[in-house]
Amino acid sequence: MFQRILIANRGEIALRVIRACKEMGIESVAVYSEADRGAPYLHLADQSICIGPGTATESYLKIPRLISAAEAADVQAIHPGYGFLSENAHFAEVCRDCKIEFIGPPPEAMHQLGNKNQARKLAKKAGVPVVPGSEGLIEKDEEALALARAMGFPVLIKAAAGGGGRGMRVARDEQTLMSGLRSARQEAESAFKDGSVYLEKYIEQPRHVEVQLLGDRSGNIVHLWERDCSLQRRHQKLVEESPAPNLPDSVRKKMCEAAVSLAKTAGYYSAGTCEFLVDKQNRFYFIEVNARIQVEHPVTELVTGIDLVKAQIRVAAGEPLPFKQRDIVHRGCAIECRINAENPAFNFRPSPGLITRWQAPGGPGVRLDTHAVTGYRVPPNYDSLVAKLLVYQPTRADAIACMRRALDEFIIEGIHTTIPIHGEIMRHPAFQAGQVDTTFIERTWMQPGK
Amino acid sequence: MFQRILIANRGEIALRVIRACKEMGIESVAVYSEADRGAPYLHLADQSICIGPGTATESYLKIPRLISAAEAADVQAIHPGYGFLSENAHFAEVCRDCKIEFIGPPPEAMHQLGNKNQARKLAKKAGVPVVPGSEGLIEKDEEALALARAMGFPVLIKAAAGGGGRGMRVARDEQTLMSGLRSARQEAESAFKDGSVYLEKYIEQPRHVEVQLLGDRSGNIVHLWERDCSLQRRHQKLVEESPAPNLPDSVRKKMCEAAVSLAKTAGYYSAGTCEFLVDKQNRFYFIEVNARIQVEHPVTELVTGIDLVKAQIRVAAGEPLPFKQRDIVHRGCAIECRINAENPAFNFRPSPGLITRWQAPGGPGVRLDTHAVTGYRVPPNYDSLVAKLLVYQPTRADAIACMRRALDEFIIEGIHTTIPIHGEIMRHPAFQAGQVDTTFIERTWMQPGK
Amino acid sequence: MGRDSVIGLENALADDASTHPGPFDLPTIEQLVALMSKHDLSEIDLRQGEQRICLRRGTLPATPAVLPSIAEKPAPAAAPSPRAAEPTPQSSPPRQLIEIKSPTVGTFYAQEKPTAPPYVNVGSRVTPTTIVCQIEAMKIFNEITADCSGVIVEVCVQNKEFVEYGTVLFRVDPNA
Amino acid sequence: MGRDSVIGLENALADDASTHPGPFDLPTIEQLVALMSKHDLSEIDLRQGEQRICLRRGTLPATPAVLPSIAEKPAPAAAPSPRAAEPTPQSSPPRQLIEIKSPTVGTFYAQEKPTAPPYVNVGSRVTPTTIVCQIEAMKIFNEITADCSGVIVEVCVQNKEFVEYGTVLFRVDPNA
Known about the structure:
- Chain A is built from 14 helices and 22 strands.
- By secondary structure, chain A is an alpha+beta fold.
- In chain A, the strands form six sheets. An eight-stranded antiparallel beta sheet of chain A has the order 13-12-9-10-11-14-21-19, with helices on both faces. Chain A has a five-stranded parallel beta sheet with strand order 3-2-1-4-5.
- The longest helix of chain A is centred in the middle third of the chain and has 19 residues, at 174-192.
- The radius of gyration of chain A is 23 Å and the shape is globular.
- The termini of chain A are far apart.
- The mean pLDDT of chain A is 94.
- In chain C, the strands form three sheets. Chain C has a four-stranded antiparallel beta sheet with strand order 3-10-8-5, with no helix packed on it. In chain C, strands 7-6-4-9 form a four-stranded antiparallel beta sheet, with no helix packed on it. In chain C, strands 1-2 form a two-stranded antiparallel sheet.
- In chain C, strand 6 and strand 7 (140-145) form a beta hairpin.
- In chain C, 30% of the residues are buried.
- Residues 1-24 and 59-90 of chain C have low confidence and may be disordered.
- The interface between C and D is large, with 42 and 43 residues.
C-alpha cells in the first residue's frame, strides 16, 4: 500500500480523500492555490503545498507544478478527485512517466472514452444501446426521411459545426423535417459557414440514470447499481438518488450489465460512471463514461456500504477487489442534495464570501460531506459546491422526509445557498412521485425574467 | 397515528424525538426548565413550554406540571426519553389516567422489572441465568461454606443493609470466607446496626453486554442483537459498540433468546434493554432490564437499519411491528463515543459553560447526535452528555480507524470534553483487541492522585 | 495586499446587492450625514446600477446630485444624532413595577368560582397574603398569593388562559 | 500596518454583508469612514461593475486615489503610532525592501551548473533582467529574473531547496 498520496484537487473532494487516507493509515499531501490558502481542510492533511495563484490554469490545472510538488513530497500516488485534471489522460501519462501512480483508470481507456465518437463506437461494439442517428452527415433529404422513418419521430437535426443550439431543429413529422432541414442548413451556413447537418433521435424529457462501476487490474469489473440524477439545472446536477424511482428491475439490471460490458470492452479499471438517458418507455441510451470518482459517489456508498475512494486507492496499489458482483447488495434508499453557494432567487448567481454561521444538521440517517465551517470564506474562483447533504433510509418516502428535516435544520449565514430550492424539491409532488426528468427544474423554477 | 406528542425530556434525546416526529409528520411539543430556556433544539419543536426552574424536581421530574402542559397542548402521547421519569411506573399510570399514551412499556411490566428482587425472580422463571447467590440471609457459617462450595470461589459477602462497599468482602477460599464473614458482620453491625449478610458469586473483571428488545402490543417481541458497553467509569458508560467483540456466536444467540423470553414473561412491549454480565468463560448473568430507550440506542439503529424511536412511537400508537425476528439482520460494526462536558485530566470533573466553538466531524460513516452548537451554554444542572459520536463501518478495524479520524476532526472550545480520552481508548491495544472489561477505564486512566 | 481587502469589500457589496435591491431610505441618509459632519467628510458618493447617493459638505463646488429629493438634505448638515446608537426599546414595563409570576404550569382562574367576582382587579390593593388568583393543574386548584404589597395596575392574562411557569400574571405598583 | 487594519475591515465588511442587507450598507460605510479618519485617508473609491463607493475627506485632492495605493498612502499622518494599529505584527520585511518570490513550484538552484558560481550573492546589484537563479520543475530549468532594480540584501533559500509558489527567494533594497 502507498505510504503517501498527493491530492491534486481542492474543497470537499480533497477532504474526502484526506479522510480516506487517514483511515487507511496513508499520509496525505494537499496542494492549494493562493485563493485556498488557510482553508481549514488543509490542516487535516499531513502536509500542504502552495502551487500557484487562484487561477486554476496556473495551479490546479498546472501539471508541472503538481508533479514538482509530488516529487518534492515524495509521494507514490496522486488522487485527482473530480474536475480539474481528473479525466486528463495526458496527466495520467505524465504521472506514469514520473513513476507516480495515477489513482484512476488506465490512460488508454481514458483516451478512448474521452472522445465522444470513439466512446459511441465502443458502446456499439459492446452491444450498448446509443442514441440512434445518422452515422455521418446528411447529404440528401431522402436519406434524412428514410432514417427518420426508420428510427421514428421526433428527430433532432443538428449542425455538424453547431453549438449553443444554433442550427438545431426538432422535427415531429415528415413535413417539419423537410422545413427543419432547410432552415437548419441556412442557419448553420450563416452561423458557421458550414451548412452540413446530421440527424439524431430526439429523446423527449429523458431521465438521467448512471451506473457506478468499479474494477481492479485483474479484470474483475463490477457495477454498484445505479443513481438517478435527473434533477439538473443547465446540466448541473442538483439532486441524486439511488435506487432510480419507478425504474423496472429488468431495465435496471440490463443497464447495469451494459455498463459492465462497456467497461470490459474498454479495458477499464478503478471507479467510473456510465451515463444513460432513459426515455418515457424506459429505453436507455448510452451518453458517456465519466472516467473518475464523481461528486455524487456517496449515494452509492450509502446503499452498498462500499467505500469507493478507499477502493480506488487499493486498486491503484494493485490490490484485487475483495468482492464479486454477487456480493454487492443494494439496500435502502439514499438521496444527495448539492448545497451550492448560489442564490436560487436570482437565477442561481454565485454567492461567494465569508460564511458567518454554519450550523449543520445531524442525527439518524444523515451524512454531510463538506469543507466549509463557520468563518470559512468561499472563494469566487471555483465551482460553488460547499456541501453534499445525504440521507439514508429504508424507503424513499423515509429518505425524503429525513432530507426535509435535515434541510430545515441546516443554517448557513453570510452566503446564499441552494438549500431553499432543495426544500421545495423535496416537497414537490412530482419529485415525491418519482416523476421527474432532466427538464423538471427549468420547467418548474427557472423564471426567464430573473 | 398521533397528531401531537409532548417530549418530557431535554437535550439530545429531546432533539432525537423531535427529529423522529418531524420525519413522521407528528407535531412535537417540547418542555423546558429555565436552565434550558433558549436552547437551540427547542426552536425545532412545533411548540415549547416552560415548566419550572432549573432544579429537575421542580421541572422535568414534576408530574403535575408535565401533565398540565400536555393537556394544555392537547397531545395524545408523551415520550419520556431516558432518565428523569422514563422508568417511573407511576408517571406512566398518571398518563394513562389522563388518557394520554405513555410511549414506553406497560406500567405493570415497569413495576415488576423496576424491583431488583422481582426482576431476579422473573428472570429465573424465564430460565435466564442470574448471578448465583444465597436466596436469603446467611444464618450459619456452614450455610455460607456449603453455598460457596456449590457455586465456587471467589464469592462476595454483602451486608443486607449494606451500601457504598461497606460490609462487603471478597472471599477467594474457605479460609478467607470464614474471616470475611466475621469482619463483614462486624463492619455491618457497627455501620448499619444490622449484622446480617448474604452471599453472591463474585464475577471478576466482567464484560457488560446488553440486548436491545423491541415488542408490540400483540406479543411480537424481537431482539435487535447486542451492544457491548464494558467501557465504563463509575458505572457511567463511555463507549458502546455492536457486535460485542470476541463473543462466541453461540453465546450471543443464547443471550439474545434469553432476553426475549424474559421480556415475554414480563408481558413487555415497546423498546427495552436487558443487561448481562459476561465472565471470562463467556458465561452470562442477568443484571437488570432498562425499561426505556437508551442513550446508546443509535448503535443498534446503525447495525440493524431500524429506527428505534419511530418504532416506539408506532407501537405506542397500537401498530404491530412490521418485521419478525428473522427479518432483523445485523450488518457491519458500529461504535459510539459519549462526548461529555467533563475534564478527563481532572478526574472527569464536570465542565459546563459556554461553547465558544463547535466544529463537528463529518464524511463517510459518521453520525452525530447532539443538541449543542457554537454559542450554546451547557447548563450545570443536568448530566454532562453534549454529543454522541457514532461511526458505522463494515469491520471493527474500519470503525475504530473512522472513529479516530472523526475524533481528530472534532473541535470543541470553551468547555472541556471527553474527546481526548476517547482518542486514547481508540488507540489502546487492549481495546483494539476487544480485550476490555468494566474495570478497564479505572485500571488504565484513573489516577487517584488527580 | 490592498487588493485583497477590495475583493472582500466587493463580495460584501455584491452580497448586499443580491440580497435586497430595494430603494434606500431617509434614515440611511440621516446617518450618512451624521457620519459626514462627525468625521468632517467633504463628499459621499454611492451608486449601484440606477441608484446613487451623492452627498457633499463644506466649501466645495456644489454640483447637482442625481437624486434631487436626497440632494436637498445634506447642505445645512443638520445632522440628527445617529438613531443607530440607541438600543432598540424593549416593551418591558417601567422599572418600578413588581411582576407577580405563575409559580407553576396550569390554567389561570381569576375567580374562586364562576359566580364569584374576580379575586382582584386593576386598582385592587394587595398585601403579600392577598390571594390574587388560582391556577389549576391536574384538577387541583392552587391559590396564588401576591407575595408583595401595592396596587394592581395590570392583569396580564385572560381568565382560564393556560400559563407556563414564570408567566407574568399581574403587575403591581408598590408605591401607589 | 494599514494592511492589517484593512484586512480586518475586509472581514468586518463581509460580516456586515450578511447581517445588514441593503443596497448601501451603513456598517460598511461607517467602518470605511472610521478607517479614513484613523489613517487620515483623503479618499476611498471602490467600485465593482455597477457598484461604487467613493468617500473623500478634508480638502479635495488633485488626483483621485486608486486603491492599491492606499497601503502606501499614509505617509505623514500615519507615522504616529503605526505599530499600535497592528493587531498581529507580521514578520514582514521593512517596507523599503522588495521581495523576489518564486513564480513556480520546484527546486531552487543558485548556480547555472554545480561548478559555476552563484548567479547572485548578498551585495550583488540587479536590474529587472538579471538572472538571479533557476528553478527546476520536471527536469526543466526555468531562469528567474529579478524583475526589479537594487542590491540583494538577503538570499532566503538554500541551494537545491524545494520552493512553493510564492516562496520569497531574495530581498532587494531598491534604494541602495
